[in-house]
Design brief:
The chain is mainly alpha-helical and 651 residues long. It is 66% helix and 4% strand. Helix 5 runs antiparallel to helix 6, helix 19 packs antiparallel against helix 20 and helix 29 packs parallel to helix 31.
Length: 651
């Protein structure tokens, strides 16, 4: 039976029974979980042992390392000075400690005083200088090394990568490698690939990979990560599919890569394949990546299945894993579950708060977002620009212009995104002249998001002058964004200015701008069901259209009149009604009513902004059907219940 380290050190001391082989691991284990007081106690009791145990290098070095890990350099130095004989490991431990705490001068002094320097000593110096950003000094030390191994090469390569210095690496390392002047094993080549990927030199990494002939597992994983970082998912998949052996890192590189590159459905399908592989267990990175993909897609039920899978397999989550959980729940519109996870966390970082605040913002909970930022400051976590952006967005979506103004004024150096939120706040409050004044007087050049807020306000208030002003700037900044053309067309169409609508359409054709296809989807039984306008491809289309017709008859009896302003064609009223009547979100809601149990929340995601007519339609459906319907469009969440929407009809 294994002895508990606390018991070993707490029992009465019998020097003859305390061998160094027992005491050293006990000290390491104990000091790994205790504080400075525990370490000091361990130090004192070790010295009381006397004899062979006290003199044993392993005992001294275990204590020395424990001090270094905790940053107790004064205690470490005291112990070091008391040592009658110092082994190279002792010198290296304290040398590493000085670099760790940023005490470069002490590290240099100690290095100069070392009677014997081994490979580890030199490598510590290379790593230390690199962390200080002094990569040239690191290279001088590296060049002075009597011999080098894989670890020292990796230290130098990592130094180049950390400091973004690629030219020297290309000249001195890659050049020698390709000319066969340097014998570099597969581990160093893998580090090279990773370094070049971090520095944005994919082509150089590809050359090293090609030189390997028969690359090992680690090199393949590094190359997959490099391709994914550059957005070349096809090349990454080719390597992955060609690998004879794959480990969890291989799968994680692919799944996280797909997630980061917006291919969320593919990431989820690959995860399903991964869990079916015998002997392979997803880890926290896998779970976090898949939860993020579920959040982006808004598929709550599969996200919950992933959570249950992680619990059943005892996958331990760190802060980043819990942050992914908060993101998933928030993006799926179940903000209460996100709050529960947040409240259960014993430790939080700025990303935890930002994820929670962003979730509150998307759901229009402005006051809660402000309170959470205050709690964040009380926890001594400094809000960053993302925090303020989230709170301002929450105030905007929550209709809190004065609270938002106070938050904005508290920002020391607001950036253009913060100004965009301020403009949006004023626009939502109907203070269009003030919003325009902010744009004219702001200290930096406005970006597309800021002009987008003005254009949306022009649409909402049918203010042609404001809409045209904003659209003119947007056509310069992002000429290929079809959404800007559509919003201006909506303004013209709502006023019956069909010539202007036609002019915009011709302008789009001339510039090669294609209108993005609107698409809505809902998750049912872990399958995502997608619909586009007028879609009849679904196997339940006949039933879906029957439900839709029945719903329309009901709400027409309540006074519903289709809003045809979103139809950008000068056609007769009947044809316009037919066009708006089969919008993707209406088909998706009808499908949800068809397949979900009574009382179940219907959760719809749309890739574009929900139109005015669909918004009115779903509000009325929520009342007559007594159902809660949640729609996430590309701007925010709309929680429809009993004939009203959480957005208060401004989005």
């Amino acid at each position: 039976m294994r002895k508990h380290p606390f018991r070993i050190l707490k029992h009465p001391i019998n020097p003859s029974s305390r061998a160094p082989s027992t005491l050293a691991p006990a000290i390491r284990s104990l000091c790994g979980g205790g504080g400075a007081a525990v370490e000091a106690g361990a130090h004192a009791r070790a010295l009381k042992l006397g004899g062979a145990a006290a003199a044993a290098p392993r005992v001294r070095n275990a204590l020395l390392n424990s001090y270094v890990r905790r940053g107790a350099l004064d205690l470490a130095q005291k112990l070091f000075d008391e040592m009658p004989v110092r082994a190279p490991a002792d010198w290296n431990s304290i040398l590493s400690g000085y670099w760790k705490l940023g005490r470069k001068e002490k590290a240099l002094e100690l290095f100069d005083a070392m009677p014997v320097r081994n490979l580890i000593s030199w490598t510590i110096m290379v790593t230390g200088f690199s962390r200080f950003g002094e990569v040239e000094e690191a290279r001088k030390v590296f060049d002075a090394m009597p011999e080098r191994n894989v670890v020292s090469w990796n230290a130098m390569l990592s130094g180049y990568a950390q400091n973004g210095v690629i030219e020297q690496a290309l000249e001195s390392v890659l050049g020698a490698l390709l000319k066969r002047q340097l014998h570099v094993n597969c581990f160093v080549k893998t580090a090279l690939i990773d370094m070049f990927a971090n520095c944005g030199s994919l082509e150089s990494g590809r050359k090293v990979f090609a030189e390997m002939g028969d690359p090992n597992l680690a090199s393949c994983n590094a190359m997959i990560a490099a391709y994914m970082r550059e957005g070349d998912v096809t090349a990454a998949r080719e390597i992955f599919d060609g690998m004879k052996v794959k480990d969890v890192i291989s799968w994680n590189s692919m799944i996280s890569g797909y997630t980061q590159n917006g291919q969320w459905s593919v990431a989820i399908e690959l995860f399903k394949e991964m869990v079916s592989v015998e002997g392979l267990r997803p880890d926290e990175i896998t779970i976090s990546s898949v939860l993020s993909a579920c959040g982006h897609l808004g598929i709550l039920h599969f996200g919950k299945w992933v959570v249950d899978y992680a619990k059943e397999n005892k996958t331990r989550l760190s802060i980043s894993g819990y942050n992914a959980l908060i993101f998933m729940y928030s993006r799926c519109g179940v903000i209460e579950d996100a709050k529960r996870v947040f409240d259960e966390m014993t430790k939080r970082d700025v990303f935890s708060y930002n994820s929670m605040i962003s979730g509150l913002a998307a759901n229009g909970n402005g006051l809660e977002a402000i309170e959470l930022m205050r709690a964040m400051e009380e926890e001594c976590i400094e809000p960053d620009s993302v925090t303020y952006l989230g709170v301002l967005t929450a105030c905007s979506h929550g209709g809190l212009p004065e609270e938002g103004r106070r938050v904005f004024n508290a920002i020391e150096n607001p950036n253009v995104d913060h100004y965009a939120c301020k403009v949006d706040l004023l626009c939502r409050a109907g203070r269009l002249d003030e919003a325009r004044k902010v744009v004219d007087e702001m200290p930096m050049k406005p970006h597309a998001g800021l002009y987008g807020a003005l254009l949306n306000a022009g649409r909402k208030y049918r203010n042609v002058n404001l809409g045209e002003f904003a659209a003119k700037e947007l056509f310069k900044l992002e000429p290929e964004n079809s959404g800007n053309y559509v919003l201006l067309s909506n303004i013209y169409a709502s006023l019956g200015r069909w010539k202007d609508v036609d002019n915009i359409r011709r302008n789009m054709i001339a510039r090669g701008v294609n209108k993005m296809v609107g698409c809505s989807w809902v998750e049912f039984n872990h399958v995502v069901h997608r619909f586009v306008v007028g879609d009849r491809s679904h196997h339940l289309s006949e039933e879906i259209y029957k439900v839709l017709q029945k719903l329309e008859r009901k709400i027409r009896a309540m006074g519903y009149i289709p809003d045809k302003s979103c139809v950008l064609k000068d056609v007769d009223a009947e044809e316009k009604e037919e066009m708006v009547g089969t919008h993707s979100e209406k088909l998706t809601v009808a499908f949800g009513l068809l397949v979900f149990d009574t009382g179940q929340v219907i959760r719809v995601v749309k890739n574009l902004r929900i139109c005015d007519d669909c918004h009115t339609f779903i509000k009325m459906i929520s009342k007559i059907e007594g159902r809660e319907i949640v729609v996430r469009d590309n701007n925010r969440f709309h929680q429809f219940s009993d004939g009203s929407c959480s957005c208060k009809d401004y989005w």
